[in-house]
Write a structure and sequence with these properties.
- The protein has one domain.
- The protein is built from 4 helices and 6 strands; from the N terminus they run ααββββαββα.
- Strands 1-2-3-4-6-5 form a 6-stranded antiparallel β-sheet, covered by helices on one side.
- Helix 2 crosses helix 4 and helix 3 runs antiparallel to helix 4.
- The two termini are 29 Å apart.
- 28% of the residues are buried.
Length: 193
């Protein structure tokens, strides 16, 4: 969005956009702006994210997802406000975890912990955790089946400063990817080029 485009955008959503630009994520998280949904709210922005290992040359994706901010100046009753953050996490998990009855609860805890650690102020949090188990057959039998965890969540921010919401989602992506948490007070540095 160019600066001239911003003149017709509500001030609250402009604050959202500026705060998202200021978010600090781990260098393993690669973000890209993508087309946002246009029918759910008058204003929206969407980002995709992928977590890649920092080892040389490897580009395998460890986890991916989507972070969407919806804004309706008139508000929506279901949101309990004028803004709504909608997120998605997809991550491969080990086969033995697929049958663990606590996997869904653990994944939801990853989200709650990330929101708390990032100091996110929100209300109306809701979502689902799904396990997808894929087996291969026929000409694909040589490929190993896989298990994917999918966490969809949304919440209503208490203010338009959403940089910490994006940081929490980035933390969730890294947890889903199996990256160890950074010790408190430590910031990951981008690799030298």
């Amino acid at each position: 969005m160019t600066e001239t485009d911003l003149s017709a955008v509500p001030e609250e959503f402009v604050r959202v956009l500026h705060s998202l630009r200021g978010a600090r994520l781990r260098p393993e998280v690669v973000l890209e702006e993508v087309p946002a949904p246009g029918r759910i709210a008058p204003y929206s922005v969407a980002l995709t994210g992928e977590v890649h290992p920092r080892r040389g040359g490897e580009v395998d994706e460890l986890a991916s997802g989507r972070f969407v901010v919806l804004h309706d100046p008139a508000g929506q009753d279901a949101w309990e406000g004028t803004l709504r953050v909608v997120t998605l996490l997809r991550a491969a998990v080990e086969d033995e975890l697929a049958v663990d009855p606590l996997l869904s609860h653990a994944a939801w805890t990853w989200l709650e912990d990330a929101l708390e650690e990032s100091g996110v102020a929100y209300r109306a949090l809701g979502g689902t955790v799904t396990r997808v188990i894929s087996d291969t057959f026929g000409v694909l039998v040589e490929r190993k089946g896989d298990v994917e965890l999918e966490l969809r969540a949304s919440w209503t921010p208490r203010d338009p400063e959403l940089g910490n919401h994006l940081e929490a989602w980035g933390m969730l992506l890294c947890t889903g990817a199996g990256l160890p948490p950074l010790p408190e007070g430590v910031t990951a540095l981008a690799p030298r080029r």
